[in-house]
Design brief:
Elements: H1 11-24, H2 27-32, H3 44-65, H4 75-80, H5 86-96, H6 101-107, H7 112-120, H8 128-137, H9 142-151, H10 161-171, H11 177-186
Helix pairs in contact: 1-10, 5-9, 8-9
Length: 192
């Protein structure tokens, strides 16, 4: 039996990751920055008002950006424009990376039976962890990862520490699932 040599995540990477998380996910770091002079910005009411205003601005911008002429009038026409599924995109990316199916699912540490189910069922919806595992195995860019997750019905969220950790590793070109899991463990997050 072959054993994989365990890599350890470096202390420098953990420090850099902590900074990245703090910049993306203010959490407690933002509460620590509250001073008596700026206390009004930290009250629950002030935070609600700030976020409500931002949401209203986004909603107005999104509505203005919609091109209502491009929306199909007929449900049948809309259904004919369905994009490729998760399964189709996954198989296309495997081919583009010149990998075999077995190389991909083994690198993703996904069971062969599950991969077979994904391959045979066009509309199969994997778990978010499975989709991220495939993105890491295929060494997808952040945009490609977001697209693959979207096809499975998920997104990388700025409100999730685990998602920010995954994003950090992808942005830094580190696709080793063991290292990502080690970082997730260090920050008390669910492993892939």
């Amino acid at each position: 039996m072959l054993f994989r040599k365990h890599k350890k995540i470096s202390a420098e990477t953990l420090i850099d990751l902590k900074r990245y998380i703090d910049s993306q996910f203010p959490g407690e770091a933002a509460r620590d920055e509250c001073t008596p002079q700026a206390a009004s910005c930290c009250t629950p009411q002030a935070a609600r008002e700030k976020f409500a205003g931002a949401a209203k601005r986004r909603s107005t911008q999104e509505t203005a950006a919609l091109d209502f002429g491009a929306v199909p009038n007929d449900l049948h026409e809309a259904l004919e424009t369905i994009d490729e599924s998760f399964s189709e995109m996954l198989l296309r990316k495997i081919d583009e990376r010149h990998m075999t199916d077995a190389q991909c699912y083994k690198k993703a540490q996904i069971d062969r039976k599950l991969f077979s189910k994904i391959r045979s069922q066009r509309d199969y919806r994997p778990s978010k962890q499975t989709a991220i595992s495939f993105a890491l195995a295929l060494e997808l860019s952040l945009d490609e990862t977001r697209d693959l997750l979207m096809k499975a019905g998920y997104a990388l969220s700025k409100s999730s520490k685990a998602d920010i950790i995954v994003e950090y590793f992808i942005l830094h070109g580190i696709f080793d699932k063991f290292l990502v899991n080690e970082a997730l463990y260090e920050f008390d997050q669910t492993l892939l």
